[in-house]
Amino acid sequence: MNELEEARQQINDIDQKMAELFVSRMQCAKKVADYKRTNGMQVFDAKREQQILDNAEKRVESPILRSYYVEFMATILDVSKKYQHQLLEGNKVAYSGIEGAFANIAAKRLFPEGNLVSYPNFKAAYDSVVRGECNLAVLPIENSYAGEVGPVMDLMFDGSLFINGVYSLQISQNLLGVKGSSLSDIKRAISHPQALDQCADYLQNHGIKTEQAENTAIAAKQIAELNDKALAAIASEETAELYGLEILERKINTNSKNTTRFAVFSKAKENHVNPDDYSTFIMMFKVNNEAGSLAKALDIIGKYGYNMRSVHSRPLKSINWEYYFYIEAEGKLTSEEGQKMIKELGEYCQTLKVLGSYSVNAAI
Length: 364
Hints:
Layout: H1 3-39, H2 46-59, H3 63-87, E1 92-96, H4 102-110, E2 115-119, H5 122-130, E3 136-143, E4 147-148, H6 150-158, E5 162-170, E6 174-177, E7 188-191, H7 193-198, H8 200-205, E8 209-212, H9 216-226, E9 231-235, H10 237-242, E10 246-249, E11 259-266, E12 280-287, H11 293-303, E13 307-315, E14 323-330, H12 336-345, E15 349-358, E16 362-363
Parallel strand pairs: 1-2, 1-3, 5-16, 7-8, 7-9
Antiparallel strand pairs: 3-4, 3-11, 5-11, 6-9, 6-10, 12-14, 12-15, 13-14
Helix pairs in contact: 1-3, 2-3
C-alpha cells in the first residue's frame, strides 16, 4: 500500500467514526427538539450557536485549520437546525384570529415549521393548549401604544398555562379598501379595538367612524366580502394581499414605533438548562385585604434587588372592587434571593403565581 492509499484508508476509518458520532449528535439534537417543543422555544438560539462556534475555535491549535473547523461546525449546526425543524413540523400552535392576523404573523415567524391552528378568540386559543389540542398558544399581552391586552391578562391569572417566551412584533396598521375605492370614499373603518385605538388620531382627523371586529384579519375578510367602497379595514399588508384589498394608506398608527409583545404559552414550566440566560420574569398576585399589603409586597420585590419594568392592576371578575396585580421584573428567580423573595411575598398575598422566566425580549 502506497502513501496515497494509506491516507485514503485512514480517511475512510475516520469517516466511519465521524458517522457514528454524527448519529449520536443528531440523537441529542432530537432530545433538544423535544424539549423545545414542550417548552415553546424556537429552534434557532443565537446565543447557544455562537457559544458552540466560539468553543470550536478554541479546540484547534493550527491557525490554518482553525477557520476550516469553525466552518465545518457551522455546517453541522445548519444540518441540526434543519433536522429539528423537521421534527417540530407536528408542533400545533394555536393563535387567535384567521390567516393574516398579527397573531398569525407572530406565530408563523416564531414557529415557521409549526402546524398553525386558528381559533376565534383568545380564550379558545388558550383553552386548546389546556385541553391538549395544541402544544402552544401565541397570544398578545401588551401593545406599546394601547397598553395591556386585558382578556389575555385575565386568562394568565385564572388559567394554568406558563409563559416560556415573550417576543416583540412591530405593528404597522394600514387602511385597506376594496378594489377601486379611494380614501375619500371611506366613511367607516372596521378592526380590532386595539387597532382602532392605535389609529384613533388618523381616523378622527379624516372623519372616519369606527366599528369593532374580533381581530384585524376578520375585519379585512369582512370588507372583502361586503365589497362596499365606503368601508375599510385596518390591518397588515399581508392581510391586504390575502383578501384582495387595496392599501389606501400605509402606516396610519399614531406611534411609528408601534409594537405588540406576544407570549408563548404552554403546559410545561421552563426547566432552565442555563438559568443565567433567563433574566426576566412575570408574576401575578392578589394581596391580602389589609392596609398596606400592596405597598409591602412591592417593597419586598425591590428589597431583593429586582427591577420592576412594569406593574399593572386588573379587576377580579368574581369579586367587585378587588384587583389582582401583574409584575414584570428583571432578575433571576432561581437564585437564593429569588426563593427568599417568593417565600416572603407569600405572607402578604392570597394568590401568587410565577408565570415564567425568559431572556430579554427578542424582536421577530
